[in-house]
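quick one before i forget lol
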Amino acid sequence: MSEASLWRIAYRTVLLVAALAGATLIAIQLQGVIIQIFLATIVACGMSPIVDWMCRPPDRIRGGVVVGWRPSRSVAVLLVYAVLVAGVISIAATVIPPAARDVRDLTRKLPETGRMVAAWATNLPNDLPADMPVPPGLDVGRGLSQVLDTVMSQVTSIVGQALVVVQYAVGFLSGALNGVFVLILALYFTSDAHRIIGFAMSFLAPARRPRTQRILGHIGERLGGWLRGQVLLSLIIGGICLVGLLALGVPYAVLLALVAAIGEAVPMVGPVFSAVPAVLVALSVSPTTALLTLGLYVIVQQLENYLIVPRVMERAVSIDPLAVMLALL
């Protein structure tokens, strides 16, 4: 290899490293915008099939008479997003007031709940069967009481800090503005998807454009299907938990079901962590209610892993149910 070739390779390597470093710095500086664009892309992918269905060619009968009315793509996009916004507002208006009331009541009653749980732990040795072997010198009630006191104090501190953060967050409109920005971006992406993809394809060689368009189409279908499936999963899990908690008489059922629905969006650990506050709240009612609540969440977790998620994701993203179950193991 000649010296000129070596210099050429070194020059290209330096340029590549510099370009990657510059792109990384730009991505770090614009990470908020990039995340918003990514979220808007996912929302647009989720809404595009509905818009395409509304804009499908109208049916015709013999004689060329058009049957039915089909809106233009712009009108269909506006209709779909208007329904989406109305649905979100309706759900928020239905869920947020009772959830906020539950948070306020739970915060006020949390110290009392901690004392009740600690008293239950202290009296636990008296409730144990007389023939149950207990090592000498082991004070089960005192140990559990200390552990629960620590846990409840930490939970109280965390809830108090979270409420302060929420109060400050509500005072600012950044979250709402970001959501509106994402929604507006998604609306434009859905309306001008073909034009945007065509503009991006203009930078590629003509021979590569058909294959790239097919790949982008498959990616969009999978992203949109995943979004619709995830929303459906959250609604199903939240609904099951709400019905179960109401049946068991657990306080703050709406808030706990909302936590379960949000936790469903967090893979693997979300459903597990959403069970912890439910069991602690149920423990304030009775140990039996706490055990039944734990059993409810275990059953929901098993149904989710082996029935609900595989079936929903099979229809949403065309993944074999067996592959989903193996991935969850």
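fyi The mean pLDDT is 76.
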